[in-house]
Description:
CATH topology of the largest domain: Four Helix Bundle (Hemerythrin (Met), subunit A)
Low-confidence stretches: none
Radius of gyration: 19 Å
Helix content: 55-70%
Shape: globular
CATH class of the largest domain: Mainly Alpha
Number of domains: 2
Distance between the termini: 34 Å
Structural class: mainly alpha
Mean pLDDT: 86
Strand order of the largest sheet: 1-2
CATH superfamily of the largest domain: GntR ligand-binding domain-like
CATH architecture of the largest domain: Up-down Bundle
Strand content: under 5%
Number of helices: 9
Amino acid sequence: MRPARRLTLTDDVYESVRALIMDHAVAPGERVNIDALARQLQVSPTPVREALARLESDGLVRKRPLAGYTAAPLLTRAEFEELVEMRLVLETAAARRCATRTAAREGADGVDVAALRREADLPGPTADSGYAGIAAFTARDARFHNLLAEFSGNRMLHEAVVRLRPHLHLFRLHFPTTHHDTSAREHHRVVDAVAAGDPDGADAAMRAHLLAARERHLPYFTEEG
C-alpha cells in the first residue's frame, strides 16, 4: 500500500482505511489495530484515530468500550430489509426527480442521460477475474445509483444515497451475485424512463429494480440472520 500523502493527511488516511474496509482487507467484525495501521500507512496513530472516528459516523466501524474499533459486521436479514426499505424511499424519489428535470429540459445543469447510460452497464465476471471482478461490479453499480441521485438535483438526497451504499457493497463482496446482465437491463429501463421525461415510469422502473435485487440477495441469509 502506498504511504498516505502528507499534504492532505487526515483525508488521505480516512480514504486509505476506508478502502481497506471496503475491500475486506479488514474483514467484517475484525478488530482494527491502530498501531499496525499507522505503521502500514507510515503516519502517527493520531490521524488513524481521527479516520476511525469518521468511519464510525459512516457506520463502517464500531467502537466498543475498552475494546477499541472493529470493522462493521455484515448486514443481518433485518438490517438488509431496512436498507431496502430506505432505498425504495430515496432512490425512487431520485429517479422521479431526474425524469422531471429531463422533462423540464434544464440543460447543462440538468440530467446527463449519456453519462447514466454509460454507467448503467455492469462488467461481468471472467474466468480469472475473481475478487477483482466482483469489486468492479459493485463499484460500477454504486456509481450508477450515486450518479442518478446526484442528477436528482437534491443535495441531501444524494448524500443520503451515498451513505447507504457502503453497507450493500460490503455484503455483495462477501456474497457475490451473478446477475450482472439482469441488473444492467434493469438500470437501462430506469434510464429509458428518465430520458423520456416520465417520472412515473422512472419511479416504477427503480422500484422494480430494487425489489428484484432484494429477491436476488435473500437466499444468502439464514433464517436466524
